Amino acid sequence: MCNYEGRSFDLEESQSFHENGLSFSCVLQESDNSNENFQVSPSDALVAILLCCDNFLRQIIIEKLSICQLAIPLLIPVTDVHNKEWEMIVWGMSTITKKWQTGSGSSCERSMAIEKLPIVSALRLGRPKISKSKIVNCVINEQKHDIFFNSGCKGGNVERQLSDGLLEMTWYLPTQKRTEAFSDALTFINLRGNALYFRRQTSFLSEISLVTIAFVSCSDFKENDAALLESLYNQKGHVIVILDNVPGEYLKERVEEFEKNWDTPTKKQVKYVLSQKKNELKISREIWRFIESNFKESNRNVIRNWSIEMCIALAKRMNYHVDETERDCLEAKQSAKTLIDRVVSEGKQNELPLQVVTVNIGETKKEQHRLLRKGNMQIEEYVDKQKKEIADLRRKQLDLHNQRPEHCTYNVFKSSFKESLIKRKYFLGFVKIMTDRHSIDTLQPIRREYIKQWNELCDERKNESGKSESFTHSTKEILDELEQKLSQNSLGLEHFNREIGQSYEMSSDLTSLAFESDNNDIATVTAEMLVHGYPIELMNGDATYVPLTWIEAVFSSLKHQIGNKKMFVLSVLGIQSSGKSTMLNAMFGLQFSVSAGRCTKGIFAQLVPLDTSLKEDTQCDYILVVDTEGLRSPEFASIQQDNNRDNELATLVIGLGDLTIINIMGENPTDMQDILQIAVHAFIKMEKVNIKPSCVFVHQNVTDATASDLNTTQKRSMRTMLDKITTIAAEAENFSEKYKSFSDVINFQENKHIMYISSLWQGDPPMAPPNPGYSKGILQVKKQVLTFIRNSEPKSIDEFKIFLSSLWNAILYQHFVFSFKNSLEIKAFNDLNAEYVKHARTFRRNTLTYSHQIQVACKKLKADNIREEGEKIHRRYLLKLKTDIGEFQSSMKSYFEKEKKACQWKSKMETQLDDLCKEIKKGITDAFTAITNNVIARTNIDENIKMQEEEIVRKAKKLADDYQNQKLSDENLQIEFASKWKTWVSAIPRLIDSEDVNTSFQRITGEYYTENHRSDVTQEFRFGFTKTEVVEDDLDFGVIQSIKSMFKPLNKSALVNEANCTKQNILENLKKQISDHAQNGENYSHQFGFDIFNSLSNELKEMKVDTKFGLKKKKVMPLVLYNFNVALIPSLREMQEKYKRENDPRLYMESQKEKLWQMFKEKCEGLHITVRGASAISWELTCAIKTSLPEKCKLGIIDHLRHSPNKGFSSKMSLHAWMLIEMAEKGDFKSFVPYLSNPVQCIKTFTSEVIKKMCLQENEIGTSLLEEIHHRKVHDTIIVLRQVISTLSAKTTVVTVKTLWSSLVEHIDDKELCLKTDILIFDEDRGLILDELCDSLLLKLESIEESRIKAYDDSIFSQISTSCFEFFTADLLACQEMCPFCKALCDLNGKHDHHRTNCHRPQGIAGFKHEESKRLVSELCTTSVMSNNSYFFNQHTNGKWIKYRNYRSVNPYYDSWKIEPEAGESEMFWKWFMATYNTQLAEHYICNEADIPDGWKSVTKEEATGDMKRLYDI
């Protein structure tokens, strides 16, 4: 804030000020103040504060003092600087600039540290009865503003402890009003305290003062006072002595003596003024008349004019310390002077050439997006041409950069980045100071001439009958020339930073360039300076260009330095010179430029840290304050696109800001309408693209900002104006139906969001101080800003980078609303989707386990109790599922709490989650129902199998008893057993076979088709069903459509592709139906086969392509026969075989042969019952392990792929890219043909192949992933069994085999093994020693593990491949919709409002071709929808030409796609593909080759695949 009232304060005991170095309280402790009512003089307080500050903070304080029209310290007491007692402040005031009117009437702006002016000094001898400082204030300023602190001010009577001897200064600056005291600018210097005690200060003033005002106390005038007065007589400058009373005799005598000794011929004047009986005004009048009289040329020459910098040598001579003489400061100043001198002498264009080229780069980038001069060129070709031009411009920059000499401006400036922080800050400070001084000297005359010519042109336009057109044209040319001069001669710190930024962008764009190794350091240092309060240029004002690469690099470095902190973005918008920068500087203590002959040009941002309490209160770390150039700038008034520039600025500033302050200066409704109209247009654009900015209208320079009645009336009027402007703007933006009032656009309350502020100045500048009411008004605005911060969701640094990029890229297009691509929102959605998929996969993975465990548990139950006991199992797992659902919901809730931007999709995601949970729950319930029905249905079968098994066991035992004592060899014994086994098994009745599937197929066709078609069916059977895929001739386009297509041909290849995709989906659904039937334990039946055949036939008959075109009737039958035979019969046959394996008792007994042979052999050998019991148990365990391994391996594979470092399965886009890279590596167009026809099926095939490859491919040690998982699962199972057996062995001592088996069944979890409830053994089961049985069993486990590992076979993959495939495709291919133009797959999963993809490609890849040339289309759909003059027609548009930009009006499917407009932004892969396979594509689609942009032809396969790997992290 800038409020001069801050000089008056009350000191509280608890107050403490501390900076690095001295503390405020320590400085004041030297005074002997034991008084409880301790008071501090404001003068002492100022000195103490300055002593506690470093030079940079001093500079800021002194600048604020100057703005407040308070005296600034020139010489202050010090005690710790090189053992010197006084320090002269030069650096601290070097940034001060002032404006005034010269005697000639012209406006003048100068840097006060170097401006040579007459100096008037004031001092006192003794303690006069009148206030020296008060009288001097009256001399300077009749507005009664206390520039110099005096006894009449609050605290003025407090005794000073530090500030005696202080030299303070100010300036008198005229406006050439008749009532003013002086016609020229003056410097006033005031000495605090009795001059008698500060002879060095008095000598210093005597050397430099044109006029010295000496206030003398007559009552205590002594010899020492006389000596000092005599020295004033001897100085060169004039003297005016103010006596506070009638002089005494001693004083009279000494004055007479001085007069006699005074050399009268000199032009020096000495005057005495008796102040007795005179008021302050009269005294001041006499003083200023004396001063004015001595301004005459003859009297003025007694002493030269002095600047502050000229005083440095004098100060050193008097042994004063000068703040600028610090080593870092001196070296930085010299470097800055060298830098500026070179730029001024050589010219900015020569020394900073990169930014000159930037203007052309900015224009070319806009043209690349807007295509205004495209003409008849193809879009992609034209875009490629613009990119080449940009590359050429970058190379031109490189040439200019390489031509720089070693000690060029760029290298000098860049070298400062390697200096210490302190030295760097000095250097940047001096560069700013010197460039400001240069601009003041150079730009003022040009600007005056510009304004003069502009006013003449305006007068001419007003008076059309005036001067000729040639005059108008000539004036415009002069204006253009002056504008060019303004740009060329304007020089500021931002120009050097801009050059650094452009060198970074140049090196980044020219990726093959081996640039300086310290290139990244410049972004790091720039970020560091941003943290230390230096602004960064977001938009180049000369080029209207945002250097995104450079800005992103700086903010990335900023994130690295301070973390990914949250920033609230506050922006400001207003017309030029309306006080925007001043307001921001006052509000936050910033350093945005407000003078130096230059207005803000471009957009700048400065970082403001929040203190700890505010951080906690607002959940925000920083405010990023964005200042912008003024709208309606005169410099751009002659530019035809002025309105566009203002609209671009407004759109960017309002879009960036979480809150935008709309700054309105004055009470002129016309000026208000100007700014409001632009702002409302920008707000409508933001609302349409779902950006929710806020705004506060700050009305500055209001006559009476506190009058509530007046304010209420003004607010209502402004609201009415806003509503009216909103209506007009809505019509212009084609949203008139939606926006009727300003509140429809933005949440707005006029009683809160319209604020009034008094005028900045309390009187007329340049001598007027700031109005305290202005600062108080700014404080209210600041409080409103903090309220918005508390209720906002600040952006992180990463989010700000993304959002700035999205916003600027949209602005580059002419149609912002249509072109805006909210990358931040897209990222938030993609992150949410990835988070959802991650948890959904875990959830679905768990349910796979639950379904399996339900089946295992239910298989142990009997038919008579499965309903009751099974329901308990079912409920138990539903409770587990409920817990998982709760965890899923909790995880998503935590995510939404953390990621606020994702909350806009919260309800949709919750619905999606709810649908998934219902689906999973239904799946588990269906699985339970199926296994229950299966157990009940198998009752008789299982009982029969059990009976047959018991009978064979009985026979085998009897046979073993017969041979037990015969001691036959194993070979003979096995021959005997095999002979008997054959007899036993052949006696078991076989399952009645169902009809052979192939035979059934022939019967089905005979029943389904009539006599008229049977000959055709016979032909198909005879020749092997030659009809495979749908071809063009199969589709029925109709007679009328065929006639139409002669004039407007259909894209029939696309329709054929669509037909085959639909057919494939039909087959997939039927295969799933067959699989479900088999899983439920059903056998194949002729009726089931007929139903499947009928479904296939009906769906192919009813199939419609593009909702219009079906298959020709005569083409349906061959397609049905072929696809049923090739695609479905294998599935039906597998279903039949599965049923046989599970239900045929003879087949079951054949599977038990090895087990019974082992039992038979052990019995014959006479092994102990303990060994044979352990053997029986181990056999059952082995079978159970074998049975469990496919399920365990399936889950192991799924878990591995879910967490694999290869991100191929992480998203649909990654999987898609992975597949394309694999195809590209084959180097054969044939690899892509299936993809072109049916991308979804191709991805499915690839997914299946990849899973197989990842599972079965051997690594360097000769094992596959599946093998490793298999072995690990075997080992893990054995560990569990060991633990269970060890636990059981400690519980009892005697046990039977069946009892031990029952205990094992009870203790082994269903998720580990599916164990039979009963076990068969040869002998009577009797009590055995448990330890012996368990020890024997533990030995068996080692052989079980070894045998199962050896028994591994890749064939296990066939049992799990389908489940693994379905697990991943459930979310990766949940949405299979394709772009209506380029046929790219939708990237999203689950339910969503709009389909979208980030990898659109040239439309020719999908077979689209130009109507006249029949050439494949090389344009991307993203480029086509960007253009305003691109059209398309096809079967969907009924042959009508539709503008690409209006594609969503075609039909609901087109409307469901959101295609972001981007110029030539296809992935590099598709550019390579189109250029490489142009000929093959044309042959494939039977058309002419595409016109390929030259830039595409240079892309290599390695670059294309490498780019895709980088994009998708593969």
Tell me about the largest β-sheet.
Answer: 9 strands, mixed
Shape: elongated
Helical coverage, percent range: 55-70%
Number of H- or I-type helical stretches: 57
The low-confidence runs, each spanning 5 or more residues with pLDDT under 50, are: 13-21, 1039-1048
Average predicted confidence as pLDDT? 82
User: What would you call the structural class?
Assistant: alpha/beta
Biggest sheet: strand arrangement: 10-9-8-5-7-6-1-2-11
Strand content is 5-15%
Cα distance spanning the termini = 54 Å
Radius of gyration (Å)? 46 Å
The beta-strand count equals 25
Could you give the topology of this structure?
Layout: H1 24-28, H2 42-52, H3 55-67, E1 72-81, E2 84-88, E3 97-101, E4 107-111, E5 119-125, H4 132-140, E6 167-172, E7 186-194, H5 199-208, E8 211-216, H6 223-234, E9 238-243, H7 249-261, E10 270-274, H8 280-293, H9 297-300, H10 311-317, E11 321-322, H11 327-346, H12 348-351, H13 354-370, H14 379-402, H15 409-415, H16 421-462, H17 469-489, H18 493-509, H19 519-531, E12 536-540, H20 548-562, E13 566-574, H21 580-588, E14 602-609, H22 612-618, E15 622-628, H23 642-656, E16 659-665, H24 669-688, E17 694-700, H25 708-732, H26 742-745, H27 750-753, E18 754-756, H28 772-790, E19 795-796, H29 797-812, H30 816-819, H31 823-859, H32 866-898, H33 906-937, H34 939-963, H35 970-986, H36 997-1008, H37 1011-1023, E20 1035-1036, H38 1039-1047, H39 1052-1079, H40 1086-1102, E21 1110-1111, H41 1113-1143, H42 1145-1151, H43 1153-1165, H44 1169-1202, H45 1212-1226, H46 1233-1237, H47 1239-1256, H48 1265-1289, E22 1294-1295, H49 1297-1307, E23 1328-1329, H50 1330-1350, H51 1356-1372, H52 1421-1426, E24 1431-1432, E25 1442-1443, H53 1452-1455, H54 1468-1476, H55 1478-1485, ...
Parallel strand pairs: 2-11, 5-7, 5-8, 8-9, 9-10, 13-15, 13-16, 16-17, 17-18
Antiparallel strand pairs: 1-2, 1-6, 3-4, 6-7, 12-14, 13-19, 14-15, 20-21, 22-23, 24-25
Helix pairs in contact: 4-8, 11-16, 13-14, 14-18, 16-17, 18-19, 18-20, 19-20, 20-29, 23-24, 23-29, 24-25, 31-32, 31-33, 31-44, 32-33, 34-35, 34-42, 34-43, 35-43, 36-40, 36-41, 39-40, 39-41, 40-41, 43-44, 44-48, 44-50, 44-51, 45-57, 47-51, 48-50, 54-57
